[in-house]
Design a protein that fits this description.
Layout (H helix, E strand, L loop, with lengths): L2 H36 L6 H5 L2 H10 L12 E9 L3 E9 L4 E7 L5 E9 L8 E8 L1 E7 L4 E9 L5 E9 L2 E5 L1
């Protein structure tokens, strides 16, 4: 066999092995890791094998309750108008260790934002910033380190009004615009 044929055969074998490895890793991730770690079970295999219990036991061991089982759990969506060349705050009231899962988007328009919290009853003006940047979208969650108001300050530096589409879920009360 010539060196050229050997090189082509080796490359072909390597590509096939790589594809098999990627497919196998994806199957393992979807079938075992997602159900055990995140209680996400698109195939149903995790429930059949009892792996989803692991994710629930990790939540219980960490002291974080399953939000959807809480009677105070809620889901909301709203549109927030950020006027041209100005800023505003949109807030939620959370208890200590309360969780807020969120996703917001301002379309193609970048906004300055600061996700922060202010302790309940504080009169000093103290606030704790969790994230700040210029962006047009953000998705994530916060666990409130203290009881109080938590939310976003958005600043629109453009000459046009911008709408923010905000989706939230968790255990909170809506304060709204501040």
């Amino acid at each position: 066999m010539s060196e050229e044929n050997l090189a082509v055969q080796s490359t072909g074998t390597l590509v096939k092995a790589l594809l098999v490895a990627v497919v196998l890793a994806t199957v393992i991730f979807v079938s075992f890791v997602l159900p055990a770690e995140y209680n996400i079970d698109p195939t149903g295999i995790g429930k059949f094998l009892g792996l989803t219990i692991l994710a629930n036991s990790q939540e219980q061991a960490s002291g974080i309750p399953d939000l959807s089982d809480d009677p105070d759990y809620r889901e909301d969506q709203t549109m927030v108008l950020i006027p041209a060349n100005s800023g505003l705050e949109y807030k939620f009231s959370l208890q200590q260790y309360g969780k807020l899962i969120y996703e917001w988007s301002s379309g193609d328009n970048d906004l300055y934002f600061d996700l922060h919290g202010e302790p309940q009853g504080d009169t000093t003006g103290y606030f704790e910033s969790f994230a700040s940047a210029n962006n047009n979208a953000m998705k994530g969650s916060i666990t409130a380190p203290f009881a109080g108001s938590h939310g976003w300050y958005w600043r629109n530096g453009s000459d046009e009004d911008v709408y923010v589409h905000l989706k939230t879920e968790g255990n909170y009360e809506i304060i709204g615009l501040k």
